Records
---
Amino acid sequence: MTTFRALNVTALDRDAFIETFGGIYEHAPWIAARAYDMGVDESLNEVETLRERMARILDEADHEAQLSVIRAHPDLAGKAAVAGELTDSSRREQAGAGIDQCSPEEFAEFERLNNAYKKRFGFPFIIAVAGLDRYAILEAFRTRIEHDRETERRTALVQAHRIAANRLVQMT
């Protein structure tokens, strides 16, 4: 199991815990707050244990709370990215996939797909971009836009969990 090397989770008070882990799920510090409120012990120094707890909190949340987490994600190569308004984590993740290097035609396709996807589903396209390049992301976009709303909502939650897991691992 992977542990947090430079961080002793059990030594954090509630505010520090939320400050440290509140951005693991995009703009959803309530998940970290609930994770802390469930009790902090040595097991939370294991990345997998904390990941499982936070994922369970989101999975057990009501439909509207889940959608709020999904809706908090920025569009890929969207206006927030162009304007430099992404969270540090989102900026690094998108840059790591080469999204910041899109040609004007690719940016236009991202914009077209972002708009069509949000119109169809009512929330932004979410994908864990780690290990993917912009071509694979565009292909996933084109495929997933054909899903029904419930399938895509569930897929978005799975992707949000993957993003959260990647963010936790980066803290080790």
---
Amino acid sequence: MRDRYNAPYELESLRRFLAGAPDELAWMDTWLDMVREAAAAGRRFARVRVVSRPMTDYQRFSHVLAKRNNAAGEDIRYLTRDQAEALSLPNHDYWLFDSCKLVIMHFAEDNRFEGAEIIEDPTVIVQHNYWRDVAWHHAARRDDFATD
């Protein structure tokens, strides 16, 4: 949902991306290994990224990285911020695990991750499942989403 995330482990890779320099992206390996193993065991990893138009430098960087995520078995799709607003989707980051565990992410004003909140209210969880399904229905596959 955010135009940028200030994750310390990404900063050097983002700098290299903006400079057009190559990067091994070793910090992604642990995540990608976990996704590969889970996908091989039949687990599903999917997310929708809501992005601005034009995309920010960070969003373009994330779009390039998503090719590696998708190759590992994670399905990342895209929705423009205007589409998300027209669909009345929420303006906060969250994760759903097995459609029954909701975790809402909290960020500081400078886009640094501050922590996560586990939500147990079934009504709130069902609402977030609905929003996930709406976003998924309207989102474009990574390779079909233009970054210009």
---
Amino acid sequence: MPLDKELLEIIVCPKCKEDLVYEEDEERLVCKNCSVYYPIKEGIPILLIEEAIPIEPEDKL
């Protein structure tokens, strides 16, 4: 389920406050600055710093 466009315009990384990149196919929000992503579960972004998952080199944008 795609995220609401208005939500995507205001949502930022909880750690560095930079914009997040929405990857709909992967169901995740990516922070290029922190090199992590936040999963989206059942249409809900999990934006807890402790839930951030490091981006593997092959996953980099």
